[in-house]
């Protein structure tokens, strides 16, 4: 019996329509397995480093029963350190994928499969968020055994939302940085001169009310400030974003809009093929 003659689709017309679920899941698993192979470095080492921050600053600044926002200093600084570690590792994970491929010449392994730009972005960002969540759990576990730290949750929605928004923001930022960078030095420059200062000067170790009015205004233009203060609000029920829960809700909505705009920018840059296909 002869098989029916089925012509090939015209050149440039996609064969897979809709969402390529298998391809997206495969890319996500590839990225997750990549950082899990070296989980001592990618998950547990950040927990140790963040715990050292807590030890140093709680000893240096938390002596004599010092309290901030009505809680001991160690309990105040712990949530900020947790979400800071999550954001930094989300950036590190997403920025490595494209950049290593561009430098090693294996970028074709990401561009060749039948994945749309949105699916490619979703797979890389999703894996970065997964690493951020694992780091957050590891840091929380380490801090739970530190004397003087209380990680009781007052508002679970704030912990989940601000933690997720922080991870998404830095994952998208890492993707944009890896597209722009041409060598590891460029990516390290973004980490050292953009990510690290914005995270350390965002109210992780202090409340912005202690700053001069001019620096308070500058801090309020820093999206890291809203992530850290909102995440802290989920644990303590208090924040320095503004008076009452209304300011926290407004900050949560603002971060959602900011990440949406950042995602559109990342998609457009990825779609253009700038520094990838050119």
Automatic annotation (TrEMBL):
Q: Record's superkingdom?
A: Bacteria
Q: How is this protein annotated for GO cellular component? A: ATP-binding cassette (ABC) transporter complex
Localization recorded for this chain is: Cell inner membrane; Membrane
Question: Sorted alphabetically, which PROSITE patterns does this protein's record hold?
Answer: ABC_TM2
Task: Give the way it sits in the membrane.
Answer: Multi-pass membrane protein
Tell me which UniProt keywords the record has, alphabetically.
Cell membrane, Membrane, Transmembrane, Transmembrane helix, Transport
What's the main place this protein lives?
membrane
Q: Which residues form the ABC transmembrane type-2 domain?
A: 37-273
The record's section on InterPro entries has: ABC-2_transport_permease, ABC2_TM, ABC2_TM_bact-type, ABC_2_transport
Q: Where are the transmembrane segments?
A: 43-61, 120-146, 158-181, 187-208, 247-270
Question: What is a GO molecular function of this protein?
Answer: ABC-type transporter activity
Family the UniProt entry places it in: Belongs to the ABC-2 integral membrane protein family.
Task: Provide the protein name.
Answer: Transport permease protein
Q: Which organism is it from?
A: Alteripontixanthobacter maritimus
């Amino acid at each position: 019996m002869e098989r029916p003659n089925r012509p090939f689709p015209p050149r440039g017309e996609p064969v897979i329509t809709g969402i390529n679920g298998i391809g997206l899941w495969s890319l996500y698993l590839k990225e997750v397995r990549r950082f899990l192979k070296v989980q001592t470095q990618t998950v547990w080492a950040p927990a140790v480093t963040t715990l050292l921050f807590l030890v140093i600053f709680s000893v240096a600044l938390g002596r004599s029963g010092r309290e901030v926002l009505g809680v001991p200093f160690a309990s105040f600084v712990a949530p900020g350190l947790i979400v800071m570690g999550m954001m930094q590792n989300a950036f590190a994970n997403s920025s490595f994928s494209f950049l290593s491929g561009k430098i090693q010449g294996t970028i074709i392994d990401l561009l060749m499969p039948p994945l749309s730009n949105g699916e490619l972005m979703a797979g890389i960002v999703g894996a970065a968020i997964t690493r951020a969540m694992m780091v957050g759990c590891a840091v929380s576990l380490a801090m739970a055994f530190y004397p003087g730290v209380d990680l009781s949750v007052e508002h679970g929605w704030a912990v989940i939302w601000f933690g997720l928004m922080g991870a998404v923001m830095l994952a998208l930022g890492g993707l944009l940085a890896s597209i722009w960078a041409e060598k590891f030095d460029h990516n390290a420059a973004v980490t050292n001169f953009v990510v690290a200062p914005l995270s350390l000067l965002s109210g992780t170790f202090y409340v912005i009310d202690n700053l001069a009015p001019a620096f308070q205004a500058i801090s309020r233009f820093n999206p890291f400030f809203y992530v850290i203060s909102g995440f802290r609000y989920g644990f303590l029920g208090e924040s320095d974003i503004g008076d009452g829960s209304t300011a926290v809700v407004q900050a949560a909505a603002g971060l959602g809009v900011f990440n949406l705009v950042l995602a559109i920018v990342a998609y457009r840059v990825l779609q253009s093929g700038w520094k990838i296909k050119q």
